Each structure stands twice: as C-alpha cells, then as structure tokens.
Amino acid sequence: MTGRAYRAELLSVAHDPRDAGPEAVRHEPDGLLVIEDGIVIARGAYADLAPRYPGVPIETLPGLVVPGFIDAHVHYPQTDRIASHGEQLLDWLEKHIFPAEKAFVDKAHADAVAAFFLDELLRNGTTSALVFPTVHEQSVDALFEAALSRRMRIVSGKVLMDLGPEGLNDTLPSGRAESEALIRRWKGRGRLGYAVTPRFALASSDEQLADAGALLAEHPEVLMHTHLSENLHEIAAVAGRFPDSADYLDVYDRFGLVTPRSVFAHGVHLSERACMRLHDSGAGVAVCPSSNLFLGSSHFNFGQADRCSLRLGLGTDIGAGTSFSMLRTSGLAYQAALAREDRLDPFRALYLATAGSAALLHIEDRVGGLELGQEADFAVLDCAATPLLARRTHEADLATRLFALQILGDDRAIARTYVMGECAWKRTP
Ligand code: GUN
Ligand code: ZN
Hints:
This protein has about 425 residues and is α/β, with parallel strands linked by helices. The protein folds into two domains: about 5-65 and about 370-425, Urease, subunit C, domain 1; about 70-360, TIM Barrel. It has helices spanning about 15-20, 45-50, 90-100, 105-125, 135-150, 170-185, 205-220, 230-240, 250-255, 270-280, 290-295, 300-305, 325-340, 345-360, 385-395, 400-410, and strands spanning about 5-15, 25-35, 40-45, 60-65, 70-75, 125-130, 155, 160, 190-200, 225-230, 260-265, 285, 310-315, 380, 415-420, 420-425. Strands 5, 6, 7, 8, 9, 10, 11, 12 and 13 form a nine-stranded parallel sheet that branches. It has a seven-stranded mixed sheet with strand order 3-2-1-4-14-15-16. The chain is globular. Guanine (GUN) binds near residues 75, 89, 200, 230 and 291. Keywords: Hydrolase, Metal-binding, Zinc. Catalyzes the hydrolytic deamination of guanine, producing xanthine and ammonia. This is Guanine deaminase. One of its GO terms (biological process) is guanine catabolic process.
C-alpha cells in the first residue's frame, strides 16, 4: 500500500467525559497513526501496529499528538480589531467592529485578511472552524477560496443583518438571493460547509429572521449560526423589542431557528426554560470564555448547562476573544467554570475543543477524534515549548501535562499542524 505513518504519543477524547466517563479518553503513550489518502486507516500501540505495515514509511513526531482543534465560533473580519479598548458588547460593535467590517466590501481586503486568519488558525493547531464573515457575499468567497487552497474544513455563511448600519446591511431580498447563490456556488466543494448566519436578533427585522428560518428549512444540510444571551444590555434590548417572547432563545424559536443544526455562541445568561429548550431541540452552544471575559459579559454557567445535558463546544470568538489559541481558550474555560464553583477537567476541555465542537458543526464523523476512517487533521503539542512549561511538565503524568498546556500554552506550544495527513504548519525551532 501507499501511505504514511506517524509515531508519537497520541491522545484524543471523542466523546463527552460528562456522559461517557473516563473511557472517553483514548491514549497511546507510544502510538502509531497510519494514514492513506489523508484518512486514518489504523491507530494503536506502535509495537502492535508497526509489524502490520512493513512497507509504510514512519516518521516520529516531536510531541503529544491531539486532533486538530475545532473553533466553534470565530469572526475572521475582526482579526485586525482584537484588543479594542473600553466597551461592552453593543458599544464595542458600534465603535470598533462595524467600521472594520465595512471594509470587507473590498474583495482584495477580504482575501488578505482571510489568508492571514487561516494561517493563524493553523499556527495555533486549529484545522476546522465555524466562522462569521461579514454581510458581504464576497467576504464568504474570500474565506472559502482561502480554505479550499489550504484543504481546511471550514463552515461559514453570509451574515444576515438588514437592520445593520449603512454600508453594513442587506435587505430581505438581497440577503436571501446572496445566501442562495453562495449555497449553490460552494455546495460539495472541498471540505466546506454553509451556515445560515443571522448576526443576532437585534440586527435583523422580523421578516428577515422568518426568512432565515425558511432558508434553513429549504436546505437541510446547512447549519444555523448566531449569537444568544451574551450581554445584559443586549438581552434587555431583545426583551424590549420582543415583549411577547418568553426569553431571548424563544425569539429565535418563533422564527424556526432552533434546530439540531443550530449553533448559538455564548449563552452566558440562560433562563432554565431556555436551557431545557436548547437541550430538547438538540441545538448546541459554543462557549467563548476569552470573549466573555474581554467584553465583561460574565462567565458561562457550566453547572446549569450540564444539568440540562447541553451540547457544548468551544470558540475563541476573535475579535472579542483575545487569543486564536484553543489551548489558551481551554484554560480560560477552566477558570470561567471555577468562578462559578464548577470544575472543568482537562480531558473534558480537550473534548470541547475538538470532538465537542465537531459535533456542534455536524462533522464529528469526519474529524475531532483521530478515529479510524476520520480525516487526519492533528496538532503536535510541545510540552517543553517554554522553560516554564518544560519545568512544570517534566516527568509529570498526562493530566498534569495537558492541564499545564491549557493554562500556560498558546501558539508557542504548537510544534506542527497536519491537515489531511500533510504538514500544514511547522514551528521554526
Ligand atoms: N453579537 C452580535 N454581533 C457580535 C459580534 O460580532 N461579536 C460578539 N461577541 N457578539 C456579537
Ligand atoms: Zn461572536
């Protein structure tokens, strides 16, 4: 056979340890990953597996191999507005974000930012993401073209916002026509997927929210991606505009936007009713701890989410989020949980950053677990990336090393990133 194999310490968490227990953790201290045409065809202990593949060249990788990270909520056009000072959500959008997003009317600008953004994901070990572009159709083309050339698995869709400011709004007919054109244009290409993307309840008219629900119903393969219950001023504005709705989630529900293929970012302030309804609908929540801290939105309530058995993934939410690193974001998720007296185990955090996010994106059969038949997207983590990490992880057990990587690690701890079995990023020594 033709193919290649990588020898390394392997770690993955394909199922939520909350539900599956410690069995969810799969670890080969000296493992072998055999890959053909970008797909994992064998995985196990090196000593068992190597004799079965005598002709296959084996490369030894310098670190702990985990599935490529999957960022379940991120805005590529906000890359250049990270670290914008001084405001909570609504004022931050007006002052810093909307002006920056207007520039994406220019396809060349969108191309340049998309290229930088995807390279930055790879530098951080992230191989898949659910991405907000802007209202402009060409901002989606720019991202998808750049993802296609890097063979990355990316899901995105034109932002719908007919109540947006001048230069950053669409209309009911243009939003519908451009969304349909993009779905048609990109269907089945590379590893790309489409998400109907109303920005949030406040940015769309009732008619556009209803139309987004209709679009979703007409295209059962696409996702729905939006924001939910992030900030108290936002929630008050939603309650003011929709006085008949039970809560923020109910607004989306009334327009047919709460489905098993819906991904809601944040969900920081959820009523018990909304939490149960999310569970019953099968929708998922992308937890964004870095962003929640940066915008003063408060901490995600893991205890409540777990009582409702919510489906969860993890997102950086760049540019309210302040790091592209899903390691760092995992460490912040731990701290957010602890602030509410909940605990987030490092293996569960790894699950959220990989297979959990994959499940939200409905790509868990393809990526997220380094399981047989899955695409060989993975990151090589360097426990000795900095003197402090090296000191803290020296002769430490797996849980200690993983937690140290989450608390102390970032892009420096990514030695290499592989996409479909090929090296897509290699740190210079
Ligand atoms: N709600 C509506 N738009 C946005 C956005 O761009 N970022 C965040 N964090 N929340 C939003
Ligand atoms: Zn966001």
